[in-house]
Amino acid sequence: LAESGLFRELNRLMPGRVRQNEPMSRHTTWRIGGPAEIMAEPCDGEELSLMLAMAKKEALPCLVIGAGSNLLVSDAGVRGLVIKIGKAMAGITLRGNEIIGAAGAKLAAVATFAREAELGGFEFSAGIPGTIGGAVVMNAGANGDSIGILVKEVALIDPEGNPFSKTRQEMEFGYRSSVLQRMPGIITQVTFSCHGREKPLIQDDMADYLARRKATQPLGYPNAGSVFKNPPGDSAGRLIDEAGLKGLREGDAQISTLHANFIINLGQATADDVAALMAKIRMVVYDRFGVELIPEIHMAGFED
Ligand SMILES: Cc1cc2nc3c(=O)[nH]c(=O)nc-3n(C[C@H](O)[C@H](O)[C@H](O)COP(=O)(O)OP(=O)(O)OC[C@H]3O[C@@H](n4cnc5c(N)ncnc54)[C@H](O)[C@@H]3O)c2cc1C
Asked: Is the terminal CB of the chain with fewer CB neighbours within 10 Å at N or C?
């Protein structure tokens, strides 16, 4: 294997943080996905730049992941290098009313940090899994807010390994979207602007949001949150529900009976099962309502 040369090289650079043929099912909240040829977890931007240079020399494709909570990985797995921005790169610091987080910090950890520092802004995010890198790429949101409004600046690395940065304006945040869904760039750090707020108020809001989630989302089974984006002025869950699709199964993948825009893994679901279910949902909803549902989840390792 030509790649095993890269594996050895990476292992010298970052011992203990490189794996070969690593099942992606261990790195997605759906617990689905075949092996990553090589997976490595950088601890900072410098290491990340070196990794990118090495992969480039071998002409290997690279995929970046955070916590894999918005990701469907194919059963065949992912060729090349999977760069996991996770707990090796997850520091959080405070500067006045600003919170600076490394991209692998969990959104929940940043929200807790903000609450302890009596800084408001992250309340909406209670219960959203994933890293802040993934959250910024997705402009993750709930309860009428999204993370983009808190972003002051984003530090990134381009595919050539060079650092650059983007302001909130330059991130072009939209509904579950940012410029990073249209151009390459790996987030290494995010600076958030928050505002002072008393801890008990923050705590109450977060508890409310969490309770609402627990009542309306099938959190007992592996899932990836909402599968489809809400069409303008409507809700994907409502359309799927009214099309009578709740409970529909393909293998061990099932449209949740609690929340129709969630697909749950009953145990042994494959990526093909989920993809087949998604195709069925899109077809039936289009036939019934003339609405084309757009996936919110990202897909990796599929042919097209
Ligand atoms: C139970 C549950 C509830 C959820 N509820 C919500 C919700 O209310 N609102 C919401 O918006 N989402 C929700 N989600 C979806 C998901 O949690 C968010 O989209 C989250 O922000 C994704 O972060 P992640 O680290 O898991 O990203 P991943 O799934 O790992 O990656 C998502 C995308 O970002 C890219 N990416 C990840 N990290 C980086 C980086 N550092 N630099 C560049 N690109 C990167 C990946 O390549 C991929 O394209 C939910 C998911 C679950 C499982």
From this structure: C
CA pair distance 6, 297, nearest whole angstrom: 30
d(CA 119, CA 112): 10
Tokens, residue 232:
């303008």
70, 146, 177, 212: residue to mutate for ligand 1 pocket, most atoms within 8 A of CB: 70
Among candidates 41, 31, 35, which has minimal Cα distance to 10? Answer: 41
Could you tell me which residues come within 8 angstroms of residue 188 by beta carbon, excluding any fewer than 6 positions away? 44, 45, 48, 85, 89, 102, 103, 133, 155, 156, 157, 163
- Spatial separation of the C-alpha atoms in residues 277 and 180, rounded to whole Å: 27
Contacts with 176 (C-beta within 8 Å, 6 or more apart), sequence order: 138, 139, 140, 141, 146, 229, 296
Count the Cβ atoms, other than its own, within 10 Å of residue 292. 10
pTM score, whole prediction: 0.97
Q: Taking residues 68-76, report their average pLDDT.
A: 98
**How far is ligand 1, taken at its centre, from the CA of residue 248, in Å?**
25
Residue 297 CA to ligand 1 centre (angstroms): 8
Express each pLDDT in 120-158 by its tens digit.
Answer: 999 999 999 999 999 999 999 998 999 999 999 999 999
Altogether, the residues listed in the chain come to a count of: 304
* Contact (CB, 8 A) for 127 and 140: no
Paired with 157 in beta bridges are 163, 186
